[in-house]
C-alpha cells in the first residue's frame, strides 16, 4: 500500500507559509504522495495563482508525488445553478490544471440529494457521471467516485448501484469508510465485499457519533474499525493508495503524527 494524504489533512495552516511545513510534516511520517484539495485557503482549481506556484515549487523541492485532484466536483444538486458549471467548466478546468502537473486522476462526488429529486433522478446522476468519465477518459484521465453523506453515493449499496450503472472501466471508487459510517453506521465488511472490485483509492479517517453528530477522531479512537479495514486490505493484497485523512475538529498540528503512530502499529 502506498501511504498518501491530502493537502489540507496534514496541518491546519492555510497561510502562504503552509506548504513547506505541510510537506516536511508528511515526509517526517514517510508520506510523499499527496492528493490536491485545498491550495492554501482555496479549493482546487479556483485557487490563487501565487498559492498554486508555491504548491508546485515546494512540491518539486520536497519530492512530493501529486496523484489526484479533488475539486469537489458534483458536490451540488441536480437542479442547483452550479450543476451546469460543474458539468461544463469545473470538470474541464480541473483536468486542464491537473494536466499541467502531470496528474491524471480526478476525484468526484456522486451529486448531492435534493428534496426535489424524483424517480428519474438516479438515471440523471448516472448520465452526468458517465458523461464526465467519457470526457475524462478521452483525455487519458481516470475518475474516482468518493462516497459522501447526503449524496447519491452515500451508503455502500448506493455506491455499488452507481458504479454498476455507470459501468465504465475508468470509473472507479474511493472507499471512504468514515463517510460510509456517517451515512449508515454499520460495520464496513458487508459493503467492502461488494465494493472491492471497484476500489482504486482508500480514504482513511476515524470517528464516532457523539450527541447525534459525527466527530472525527485520531485513528483507533473511533468506531470505523481502522484496524479491520487495514487487515481486510492486507488480506486482499491491496497495493493502491491509503490516503490519510487525519483532520479532527478543531484540526491540530498533532492530528497527523498521532494518527500515523497508530496506523504504523497496525500496518
Ligand atoms: O472533498 C471534500 O469536500 C470532502 C469533505 C469532507 C470529507 O469528509 C471528505 O472525505 C471529503
TrEMBL record:
Keywords: Lyase
Key word Lyase present: yes
Pfam families, sorted: AP_endonuc_2
Domain Xylose isomerase-like TIM barrel: 23-265
GO molecular function terms noted in the UniProt entry: 3-dehydroshikimate dehydratase activity
Xref: InterPro entries: IolE/XylAMocC-like (IPR050312), Xyl_isomerase-like_sf (IPR036237), Xyl_isomerase-like_TIM-brl (IPR013022)
EC number, as in UniProt: 4.2.1.118
Statement: the UniProt record of this protein carries the keyword Transport: no
UniProt name for this protein: 3-dehydroshikimate dehydratase
Originating organism: Flavimaricola marinus
Amino acid at each position: 500500500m502506498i501511504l498518501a494524504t491530502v493537502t489540507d489533512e496534514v496541518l491546519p495552516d492555510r497561510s502562504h507559509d503552509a506548504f513547506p511545513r505541510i510537506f516536511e510534516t508528511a515526509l517526517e511520517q514517510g508520506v510523499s504522495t499527496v492528493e490536491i484539495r485545498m491550495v492554501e485557503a482555496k479549493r482546487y482549481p479556483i485557487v490563487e495563482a501565487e498559492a498554486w506556484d508555491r504548491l508546485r515549487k515546494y512540491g518539486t523541492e520536497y519530492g512530493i508525488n501529486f496523484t489526484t485532484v479533488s475539486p469537489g466536483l458534483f458536490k451540488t444538486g441536480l437542479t442547483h445553478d452550479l450543476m451546469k458549471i460543474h458539468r461544463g467548466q469545473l470538470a474541464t478546468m480541473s483536468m486542464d490544471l491537473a494536466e499541467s502537473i502531470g496528474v491524471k486522476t480526478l476525484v468526484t462526488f456522486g451529486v448531492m440529494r435534493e428534496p426535489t429529486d424524483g424517480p428519474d433522478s438516479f438515471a440523471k446522476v448516472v448520465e452526468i457521471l458517465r458523461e464526465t468519465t467519457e470526457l475524462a477518459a478521452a483525455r487519458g484521465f481516470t475518475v474516482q467516485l468518493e462516497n459522501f453523506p447526503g449524496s447519491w453515493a452515500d451508503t455502500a449499496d448506493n455506491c455499488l448501484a452507481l458504479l454498476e450503472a455507470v459501468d465504465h472501466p475508468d470509473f472507479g471508487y474511493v472507499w471512504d469508510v468514515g463517510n460510509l459510517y456517517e451515512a449508515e453506521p454499520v460495520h464496513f465488511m458487508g459493503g467492502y465485499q461488494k465494493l472491492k472490485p471497484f476500489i482504486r483509492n482508500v480514504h482513511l479517517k476515524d470517528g464516532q457519533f457523539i450527541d447525534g453528530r459525527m466527530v472525527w477522531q485520531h485513528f483507533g479512537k473511533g468506531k470505523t474499525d481502522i484496524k479491520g479495514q487495514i487487515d481486510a486490505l492486507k488480506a486482499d493484497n491491496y497495493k493502491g493508495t491509503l490516503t490519510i485523512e487525519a483532520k479532527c475538529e478543531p484540526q491540530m498540528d498533532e492530528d497527523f503524527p498521532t494518527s500515523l503512530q497508530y496506523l504504523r502499529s497496525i500496518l
